[in-house]
Amino acid sequence: MGVSSGASVVTRTLPSVAQVTADPLIGRLVDGRYEIVARVARGGMATVYRAHDRRLNREIALKVMHPHLADGEQAASFRQRFEREARSAAGLQHHGVVAVYDQGTDADMRYLTMEYVPGTNLRQLIRDGDLTLRRSFAILDVVLSALAAAHVKGIVHRDIKPENVLLEEATGRPKVADFGLARAISEVSNTTTGTVLGTVAYLAPETISTGHVDARADVYAVGILAFEMFTGRLPHEGEGPIQVAFAHVNTDVPPVSAFAGHLGRPLDLLVRALTARDPDRRPRDAAVALDVLRSTFRQIPNEVLDIPAKAAPPPSSAAVKAARTAVVERPPAGVWVAQQPPQPPPPPARRPRRGGKLLLAVAVVAVLFSAWWYTEHGPGAYAVVPDGVVGVSAEQANEALIQAGLTPSSAKQYDSDVPEGDVVSADPGEGQRWKRDEPVRLVISLGPELAEVPADLDSMRERAARAALRGVGLTDIKVSREYSSDVVRGEVIWASVRGGDMVPTDETVRLTVSSGPPPLTVPDVTGLGPADAADTLVGMGFEVERKDKFDDLAPVGTVIKTEPGTGKGVKDGGTVTIVVSMGPKGTVPDVVGISVEDAKKVLKEAGYKVEVRGFGELFGEGVQETEPAAGELLKQGESVTIWTW
């Protein structure tokens, strides 16, 4: 099923009935959550099962460490390595890395849960012989891109091999699996003692000789992987691991063109660069190796890119023989002394040709300088961000950037206009020139951000409703007001969203707030006496105040007008002032029926002196009559007597 088990065994089909019934873990529910369905692969350290995650309702791969490894002297080391795989892979967010979800313990079982990748692995694809150069380069591109993401975080994989490159069933997309040997570079770079772990066919010479491991060891393994994909065979073969390891330390990887006649010099140079025995002569990490790979790809003719490996013309026997006997000097004494197989006699010594060597050295320096300038400062250091990376799915955008020689990175944000999973924007934008070693940042839509509408908005006061909406992230609030006889002033009558609904946080929420009862219309009371006018207004719900004013036309003691005027609206309980005529100037105003104090004020404002008679003033009685009577002419400055009894 294309899931790596941390060893070299991967199957393409489901286990037989006999296998299922013989495995006691089939059908077991791990940690109350993961139901084991079938065994997928078994390796030296763990067995991988296909399982169903009941909580999230998805298929996952469950990697279970062999129980016997939990006991004995090496138990702690194996447990640490098993847990380190989870930490290493969980820290990587890359489309080319098999995701690790969780690690745990259930009784005596130690397990990891990870992404289930149905399909096959690169080993099977190599065996089938259907690999073309185009497909090989596409797979190597993703592998190096995934390793580049790991190297940036200071993580070395240490076990790159075909079994650890999985291929999705539907798309054929590669994913790097099994970070079980992975460690931080600072932890492993100076390791010189202990057991050398990893698959010997892909180990770097310095790892075999001294135990030293850094990002360049992963680059070497990818170089061996490329050789195997291009030729269908490994560069070094032997009767056992010791002979293979010895060949890695002492022998350069032969040119691929010697084993596949259609392959040209660019591929020889690519494999030579990735598999240089001196680590200082290799690309310093996977990101640099990725640039070398893409530069080589552009040099391959189209007609060669699509030739399947099994259809390629066979190499000449002389070329194969020359490649197999390309033995170079051994490393310093003391390395692999007890395990070295017999060596063929050295070729006859030849006098060095100084002139030729000098010219060769100058040519090599010129080529290296040109390559350095081209990739670091020249045109090869830049690429153009292609069109069509915005508004498409993240996967399509990533593939477009990779094909353009650029490395994508991503961030996610909510967006109500762009569907979930599509690219909102790219930085730098489409059509811009950008350095290959700097990532292009893609912003991926999470879809609209949703908020749950608070309950009972239509019974809240306006301020409380606003606060409740803002509290859940709904900040775009529009308020309108209308009169209501049923809802008190300031309370929400209606909301455009319902409590409990999930709505986008950028949605406009509309609230209708009560302005209280509708206003009352002031009636026409002009011409009425003050008492009758006041009774009419009070009966309609108004408060009434009086103001007197000289008027040449209106009879004394009649209402001239109201403030606000007739037909105007006044809120329930509002005040209406009646303006009462005092007649023309020099006419005694009508003060009968009002308090003594108010009558004094009115008469004084009309220009008269006031005298009070009667007992009513002592008991708070109002004015009973005046002398002269209201409406009579009296010169201003004269006295008006008011009677209270």
TrEMBL record:
SUPFAM superfamilies: Penicillin-binding protein 2x (pbp-2x), c-terminal domain, Protein kinase-like (PK-like). Residues 34-297 form the Protein kinase domain. Residues 410-432 are annotated as: Disordered. InterPro entries: Kinase-like_dom_sf (IPR011009), PASTA_dom (IPR005543), Prot_kinase_dom (IPR000719), Ser/Thr_kinase_AS (IPR008271). Its EC number is 2.7.11.1. Gene3D superfamilies: 3.30.10.20, Phosphorylase Kinase, domain 1, Transferase(Phosphotransferase) domain 1. Residues 379-446, 516-582, 583-645 form the PASTA domain. Keywords: ATP-binding, Kinase, Nucleotide-binding, Serine/threonine-protein kinase, Transferase. SMART domains: PASTA, S_TKc. Coiled coil: none annotated. CDD domains: PASTA_Pbp2x-like_1, PASTA_pknB, STKc_PknB_like. It catalyses: L-seryl-[protein] + ATP = O-phospho-L-seryl-[protein] + ADP + H(+); L-threonyl-[protein] + ATP = O-phospho-L-threonyl-[protein] + ADP + H(+). GO terms for molecular function: ATP binding; protein serine/threonine kinase activity. It is an enzyme of class 2 (transferase). NCBIfam families: PknB_PASTA_kin. This is non-specific serine/threonine protein kinase. It comes from Promicromonospora soli.
